[in-house]
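Intended use. Records like the one below are meant for learning the mapping from a protein sequence to its folded structure. Do not use them to infer anything beyond what is encoded.
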Amino acid sequence: MKYLAQAITFGSWMKCIHFPHILPICEFDEPDFNDASFRSWEEVQQYHTMDCQFAQGWHLERIQERTPNYYQKAAVQIKKSGLAYVIDTWVDIDHPDFEGRVYRGQAFAQGQNAHGTHVAGLITSRTFGVQKNATVCSVQVMDGSGIGSTTNVLQGLSWAYYDWVAKGKPKAVVSMSLGGGSSALLNQAVESLWYAGLAVIAAAGNSNVDACLSSPSGSKQIIVVGATDKNDSFANFSNHGSCVTLNAPGVGILSLYPNKLWAYMSGTSMATPIVTGIALSLPFTSPFELKNILIASGTKQVLSNLPDQTNNLLAFVMPPEICPTQQSPTFLVQRSTLPHKTYPARDESMASLLQQL
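Structure written out for the chain above:
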């Protein structure tokens, strides 16, 4: 079993990962637990994507309304933009709906999985993205099964930070639709990025437990997102509690799927990029300012079935003064007029679910 430790004194150790303001985090195959040059040890564990099922879509309109179904249309956020580092699975950057706004950064895992494409699509795709003018950098830390190790995730975060620095620290956020067991080192890593000026937005998780018991959602400093459904009810799968900053649509969300397709998914994985898209539509100069704006502008006291200590706050972004069209959102028009076979399913279980919609 591999172990991670944070170095107190740094020697000629291999496979060390560097973050701002904290000591290197190093990986070992056969550690000496009596080594006085380290203050903590952690087993390397697995982290996984935060999607859970397929269902119907509705998200764009809801985040731009104080009252559900008030506008009956979805405005397009394009006035402000920025860069999102999507720490996730592989992304199909050639999907035409991205219109060239998504590029590949660094890969720390191999294999293809549709999760990252769906997540990136909710940030900046032409049809489903919240911020149509944002740029997305794909940083792959999970394999074709949607699983990656603590080391993979730390490497991806470290790479994103130093790439951001090399670019001159533009307006940017890190979007993490993943989670796993509690890790003090991972929590410290995301907080180090936060204090260095790079905001982190992470999924609360889908286990219906206290989000503080998982990572990176257990970090109290970053922005952690829970999931809601189209009736403004807190999703029964979503993690909850004091570590959740705010909530966003996460049940039955339609977005991109590899090979020019679309798909419906649910999970805090979907709520997180929606908040990321909102963040890139807002004026902010620091992670602390961004978090305060999201909290202050959120729609308050509209959610039901909230577990104890969970903020009754729904993510909101002010719609443009003039909507580009007076019709229903594109995805509603397409869903009502085109047969399901236009968007082929990857397996029989998905096809069965789509046929029930």
